[in-house]
Design a protein that fits this description.
The longest helix has 30 residues. The chain is mainly α. Helix 2 crosses helix 3. It folds into two domains: 57 residues; 307 residues, no CATH class. The protein is 74% helix and 0% strand. It is built from 19 helices and no strands.
Length: 367
């Protein structure tokens, strides 16, 4: 009996095997120091398993739960202090979001018209968000999750490999500038709220409440049929909880588990036909990276005109990498880390709330 027939007759065992392959792939990738190891390792492992056996499977609600928890983790990244400091960076933040909206629309059209990607895939590969989260959006918008994941992963690798070198060169040539006014350093006063009084200050309870809040938000977003509704509404719900209480908590260590499951979910959609097509994605991916560099300079120049941030810090803030990662790199290279971190968070939040509507609009426009 083939593996495919065996797991078809024993679906629970098939799910367990898929999860075990995903976990094994994640840890192998970690040992090999592959970027985003828990997602990419799981994806590669499950993809290989599925290509050779056709037996990869995960529960029907996997996507919903994974998107919900991703929304929880993103929502917790915005603090009260960030909200207060954002008032001082309204100009650069608006420029950042508007320019990336234009980037996604214009370069997405290029990917569709010149390289022949389907509309949903064309625009999603251009969205400057998290690799896991954008790859999960592919399912909601009927894009090709394998291609979206491949291009987004390459984008993140490119950003961490090239952008620090490029920005260091620019810094040496131009200097960091005056940087604008510094952010205020006074702490935000934390007051007990009604939510704090009715929810016990217990670690387990806080985890349950936060997860429940995210799941309810995700259910509302899905029920309303919003683009990427599970992820975006879960994030919004947790942001509201985090802004109005001290009871929002969800350990970052769960992020690895989410990445493993997300990688397994994407890997299970990859077939031999997908693998054969991947080499054809290389040229458009290179073109996309060149567009990212060009737009990085343009956005940085416009943000610098507000006199709230220097050019080098603006380059870090508009680099489509991880918020904390870019802020840490910037701290070593002369950038203003607090401003960079806040603007990176603004970019990510806009990606999960505004960009799905843009992508859906553009899909309707070109279809």
């Amino acid at each position: 009996m083939s593996i495919n027939n065996f797991v078809t007759q024993n679906p629970l065992l098939g799910i367990v095997l898929t999860v075990l392959v995903a976990i094994a792939g994640a840890f192998i990738a970690k040992k090999l120091h592959i970027p985003i190891p828990f997602m990419l390792g799981a994806m590669i492992g499950v993809a290989a398993y599925n290509i050779f056996t056709g037996s990869a499977m995960l529960p029907a609600k996997t996507k919903f739960f994974t998107q919900s928890v991703s929304g929880v983790l993103i929502g917790l990244s915005l603090t009260r202090k960030d909200v207060r400091n954002l008032k001082e960076l309204i100009g650069p933040a608006l420029i950042l979001v508007v320019c990336f909206l234009f980037f996604t629309a214009s370069v997405g059209l290029l990917m569709n018209k010149v390289f022949g990607f389907d509309p949903a895939t064309s625009f999603l590969i251009c969205v400057p968000g998290g690799v896991v989260d954008i790859s999960l959006m592919a399912y909601d918008l009927n894009a090709n999750p394998a291609i979206v994941s491949f291009v987004q992963s390459f984008r993140l690798f490119f950003v961490y490999l090239i952008f620090p070198v490029l920005i260091t060169w620019v810094s040496k040539k131009t200097g960091t500038g005056d940087g604008g006014d510094p952010l205020s350093e006074t702490d935000v006063e934390v007051k007990e709220t009604f939510i704090d009084r009715i929810i016990p200050d217990n670690r387990v309870v806080k985890h349950i409440v936060t997860l429940a809040c995210g799941l309810i938000g995700a259910w509302i977003g899905t029920t309303l049929g919003l683009p990427a509704g599970a992820l975006s509404c879960s994030m919004v719900a947790v942001i509201l909880l985090n802004m109005n209480s001290q009871r929002a908590m969800f350990d970052r260590k769960y992020k690895k588990a989410v990445q493993v499951i997300a990688g397994g979910l994407i890997g299970s959609s990859i077939t031999m036909e997908t693998v054969v097509r991947l080499p054809s994605v290389f040229l458009p991916t290179v073109v996309l990276m060149i567009c990212y560099v060009a737009f990085n300079f343009l956005i940085s120049f416009l943000m610098r005109l507000t006199k709230r941030i220097d050019f080098v810090s603006a380059m870090f803030a508009s680099s489509p990498g991880g918020a904390s990662d870019m802020a840490l790199i910037a701290s070593d290279l002369g950038g203003q880390s607090p401003k960079i971190a806040i603007l990176q968070i603004v970019r990510l939040i806009s990606v999960y709330t505004i960009f799905p509507f843009l992508v859906k609009f553009m899909i309707g426009l070109v279809s």
